[in-house]
Design brief:
This protein is an alpha/beta fold and 376 residues long. Helix content is 31%, strand content 21%. Strands 3, 5, 6, 7, 8, 15 and 16 form a seven-stranded mixed β-sheet that branches. A six-stranded parallel β-sheet has the order 11-10-9-12-13-14, with helices on both faces. Helix 5 packs across helix 6.
């Protein structure tokens, strides 16, 4: 920045008859000067907030926020889209391990367009598409102001629903595939909760690496259609839980599929036990969710004679351990797969004006629904 040198000038003589007018003009000039160099302000924002923990359909409300002053390193982002994730619901309910300070704006990930910049921001321009990376709370609002370090610029050719939802679920899938076993083409994995977004991503990411996937789904109406959808995504085998009520589940494996070295559990209870039954000697099961709210029960023989390992994974813990650079590199890779048509999952874009209807769908009030993504 060029330096500015201030030079004191001797004030000229002003006749007394003109001094009042001179002072008036001087004050006017000073006012315009201050205004010209004042800090930028964000536009007013509309947000979904909650003042207490509880059922999201009861405790959330929509409010208007006044403009916010931008600090030197702040970026004001006009939000384009943000998903409603199960973890968002858990935060509002107060049952998530990390509780935001109340009152709080909902939402944890999303995508937006740069609207305005603090005076010292150089790496972004108005119109850039950005996502918070690692994710940050408060994305369910029309304008978000946060420090430039929060934002990661992405390719504007990405569909907004995928840009908005790429971090929490797809990144979980990719990180788990990479971290817990040295998999190579021809190996196999097994998972329950295969219809979840993470499950769908695991199927496709495994397929892209030449890894076989064995998938377990709930017994429910339309299971044949579900199997067909997962097979189209790249699933090698799909079983309902009742199909695995046999003494030797490994006898059900296709001839070209080896015993899996790695398993993923997001359900718990019996569904977790089924994953363990498939694992080979020395295999590992990674738990990243517990949708059934039932504990994992493991036989003693699984530890002693099969030497199985049980691990857990929590994406937020990994992302907050100084992994921003690695996180962003993996996100760029996942977004490239989306643009190439190699990674897809079902979502529904819902206008922000219909937020409460989208929340009802996310809560399962209307039966099984696609992931809800709010479009601002």
């Amino acid at each position: 920045m060029a330096s500015v040198r201030l030079v004191a000038l001797k004030a000229p003589y002003v006749p007394s008859s003109l001094r009042n007018l001179s002072n008036f003009l001087l004050l006017r000039t000073h006012a315009f000067t201050v205004r010209d160099f004042s800090t930028a302000m964000s536009p007013p924002s509309t947000a979904v907030i909650y003042d207490q923990y509880g059922p999201p359909d009861s405790v959330t409300r929509i409010v208007e926020f006044s403009p916010v002053e931008l600090k030197e390193t702040d970026v004001c982002v006009k939000m384009l889209a943000a998903p409603i994730n199960p973890s968002d619901i858990n935060r509002i309910e107060g049952v998530y391990p990390v509780r935001p300070q109340l009152p709080s704006v909902g939402g944890y990930e999303g995508v937006g367009e740069v609207h305005s910049l603090g005076s010292s921001v150089k790496d972004f321009s108005p119109g850039d598409w950005v996502i918070p990376s690692p994710p940050t709370s408060g994305t369910w609002q029309t304008y978000v102001v946060k420090d430039q370090s929060v934002w990661h610029k992405i390719d504007k050719g990405t569909p907004i629903e995928y840009a908005a939802s790429i971090t929490v679920n797809p990144l979980t899938a990719l990180k788990m595939l990479e971290d817990f076993a040295s998999l190579k083409a021809g190996d196999a994995i097994v998972q329950n909760g295969a219809t979840s977004i993470v499950g769908q991503c695991i199927i496709q990411l495994a397929r892209n690496q030449g890894i076989h996937s064995i998938n377990i789904i709930r017994d429910r109406a339309g299971s044949d259609e579900v199997k067909e959808k997962l097979t189209k995504l790249g699933a090698n085998q799909v079983f309902t839980e009742s199909q695995l009520e046999v003494k030797n589940v490994k006898a059900l494996l296709a001839d070209d599929i080896p015993e899996p070295a790695l398993g993923f559990n997001c359900v718990g209870g019996n569904a977790a036990s089924l994953v363990l039954k498939f694992l080979r000697q020395g295999g590992t099961m990674v738990t990243y969710g517990g949708m059934s709210k039932k504990p994992i029960t493991v036989s003693t023989s699984s530890f002693i004679f099969k030497d199985l390992s049980l691990r857990g994974f929590w994406l937020q813990q990994w992302m907050t351990s100084d992994k921003a650079k690695e996180c962003r590199k993996m996100i760029d890779y996942l977004l490239s797969l989306v643009r190439e048509g190699k990674l897809t999952y079902e979502m529904e874009l819902t206008p922000f004006s219909d937020f409460h209807a989208a929340m009802d769908k996310a809560l399962g009030k209307l039966g099984s629904q696609p992931k809800q993504v709010i479009k601002f």
